């Protein structure tokens, strides 16, 4: 700190010679001109010394799942920065003329500091939010409703014979029970105030479309049941539409995100077993790819792998590829949490089931942000390993790779449990893997994820 103060005092940036144009590139986001300047500098020095300040957090932006690659709420910080810079140029600092030299001197010192902190965490970047907990089942059904397709009226009717209108409400609003209305959506910067909630009619029609896409016209769509449920793990409101086969054997369910209408999964349950020979690897992959391209999932995902559960179901994974520039080099990464999985019968190529993850990459780093080096990330991970597990990293084989990671709360200041709701974004991170040999000739594996730009621990996993 003494050395830093001396550099600031020796700076040639004096008030009478400093031009306002030189100050336009100074990021004043975190500078509070009403507080003592040395406290601000000491706070940033503390970040450098302690790697990360655990209290530097802000909550994730709600609704981020419905948009891909959006910037975070850092935009509001930038707006505040522009306002502050404009006030400074006008002389409206609130500190008076006598303090002006002190203000500019501190700003020059801050500029020197910010240029030197490299990959240190900034206030504007996303932070692992304080975890929310839940109790009970992961999926909680809140409400159900049954509808029948009336050929004569060419409309859906509820259990009381009321026609379901396009608004999602029945004609007779005096009836008690479910009317197809959805609970009011939260108005956030991602959800416009004028946005209309999606209706029962919308979900019923979308389900009928999907039935045609996957060639399951043998389903009895004259009787449909809607279940409104919440997935606690993903903190997501869902709508599941289900119905039976015409012959009464088995059925099909289709699930959507209630807020965005995003198609999540479809499952043909109770399918009969089919005898015959398995398709070739090429034929089976072509069949799965065909179903992926027909379904309303984001297109352009690349095939990654197949899980062969048995001779009745093979599950194929298609993921989004993301190009990331780092130090002038383009890296091709895979986001395993923007994924469509397609299950087929490997004997016939028929559709069996599908599901999707859609947790987008939030890359909110700004121009001039310096990513952590592999060495810096490894040092942070080793320090975390020793502090959280008491294991000695010198006893392990260590691997490091750049990945798109889905944050969790393992190895953080929070005691991780299965009852935490998951963050709704993925992040660029260094993944440091420690392989510890065990007595059985295998390796106990510990993986720790470190945010590429902030250096924050983003959780990890342990395999024993």
Average the pLDDT over all residues and give the rounded result: 74
What overall form do the CA principal axes indicate? globular
Helix content: 10-25%
Q: Report the structural category.
A: alpha+beta
Strand order within the widest beta sheet: 2-1-3-4-5-6-10-9-8-7
Oligomer: single chain
Helix and strand sequence: HHHHEEHEEEEHEEEEHEEEE
Largest sheet entry: 10 strands, antiparallel
Give me the Rg, rounded. Answer: 28 Å
For the record, give the distance between the C-alpha atoms at the N and C termini, rounded to a whole number.
45 Å
| Number of β-strand runs | 14
The number of helices is: 7
Low-confidence stretches: 1-123, 167-194
Give the strand content: 25-35%
Describe the 3D structure.
The chain has helices at residues 2-9, 37-50, 74-90, 100-116, 200-213, 281-294, 374-389, and strands at 139-150, 155-158, 223-231, 236-244, 251-257, 263-269, 302-308, 314-326, 329-344, 351-358, 397-405, 427-437, 443-451, 457-463. The chain has a 10-stranded antiparallel beta sheet. The protein starts with a helix and ends with a strand. The relative contact order is 0.11. The radius of gyration is 28 Å and the shape is globular. Helix 2 (37-50) packs parallel to helix 4 (100-116). With 464 residues, the protein is of the alpha+beta class.
State the gist of this model:
This protein is α+β, with helices and mostly antiparallel strands.
Spell out the blueprint of helices and strands.
Layout: H1 2-9, H2 37-50, H3 74-90, H4 100-116, E1 139-150, E2 155-158, H5 200-213, E3 223-231, E4 236-244, E5 251-257, E6 263-269, H6 281-294, E7 302-308, E8 314-326, E9 329-344, E10 351-358, H7 374-389, E11 397-405, E12 427-437, E13 443-451, E14 457-463
Antiparallel strand pairs: 1-2, 1-3, 3-4, 4-5, 5-6, 6-10, 7-8, 8-9, 9-10, 11-12, 12-13, 13-14
Helix pairs in contact: 1-4, 2-4
């Amino acid at each position: 700190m003494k050395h830093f103060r001396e550099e600031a005092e020796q700076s040639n940036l004096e008030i009478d010679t400093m031009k306002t144009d030189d100050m336009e590139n100074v990021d004043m986001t975190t500078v509070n001109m009403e507080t003592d300047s040395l406290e601000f500098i000491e706070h940033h020095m503390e970040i450098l010394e302690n790697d990360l300040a655990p209290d530097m957090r802000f909550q994730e932006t709600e609704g981020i799942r419905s948009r891909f690659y959006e910037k975070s709420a850092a935009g509001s910080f930038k707006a505040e920065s522009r306002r502050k810079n404009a006030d400074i140029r006008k002389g409206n600092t609130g500190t008076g003329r006598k303090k002006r030299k002190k203000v500019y001197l501190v700003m020059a010192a801050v500029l020197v500091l910010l240029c030197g902190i490299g990959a240190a965490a900034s206030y504007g970047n996303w932070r692992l939010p304080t975890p929310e907990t839940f109790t009970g089942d992961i999926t909680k059904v809140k409400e159900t409703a049954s509808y029948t397709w009336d050929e004569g009226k060419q409309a859906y009717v509820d259990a009381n014979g009321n026609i379901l209108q396009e608004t999602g409400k029945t004609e007779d609003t005096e009836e008690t029970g479910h009317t197809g209305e959805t609970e009011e959506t939260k108005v956030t910067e991602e959800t416009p105030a004028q946005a209309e909630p999606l209706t029962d009619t919308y979900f019923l029609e979308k389900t009928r479309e999907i039935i045609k896409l996957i060639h399951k016209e043998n389903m009895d769509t004259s009787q449909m049941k809607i279940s409104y449920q919440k997935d606690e793990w993903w903190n997501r409101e869902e709508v599941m539409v289900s119905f039976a086969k015409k012959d009464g054997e088995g059925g099909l369910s289709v699930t959507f995100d209630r807020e965005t209408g995003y198609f999540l999964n479809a499952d043909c349950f109770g399918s009969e077993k089919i005898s015959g020979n398995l398709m070739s690897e090429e034929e089976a992959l072509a069949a799965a790819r065909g179903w992926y391209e027909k379904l309303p999932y984001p297109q352009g995902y690349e095939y990654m792998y197949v899980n062969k559960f048995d001779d009745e179901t093979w599950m194929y994974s298609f993921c989004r590829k993301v190009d990331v520039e780092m130090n002038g080099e383009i890296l091709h990464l895979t986001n395993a949490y923007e994924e469509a999985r397609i299950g087929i019968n490997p004997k016939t190529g028929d559709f069996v089931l599908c599901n999707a993850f859609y947790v987008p990459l939030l890359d909110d780093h700004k121009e001039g942000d310096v990513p952590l080096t592999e060495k810096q990330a490894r040092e942070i991970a080793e320090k975390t390993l020793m502090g959280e597990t008491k294991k000695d990293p010198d006893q392990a084989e260590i691997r490091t790779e750049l990945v798109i990671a889905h944050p969790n709360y393992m190895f953080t200041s929070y005691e991780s449990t299965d009852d935490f709701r998951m963050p709704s974004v993925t992040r660029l991170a260094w993944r440091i893997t420690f392989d510890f040999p065990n007595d059985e000739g295998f390796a106990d594996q510990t993986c720790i994820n470190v945010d590429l730009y902030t250096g924050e621990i983003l959780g990890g996993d342990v395999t024993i």
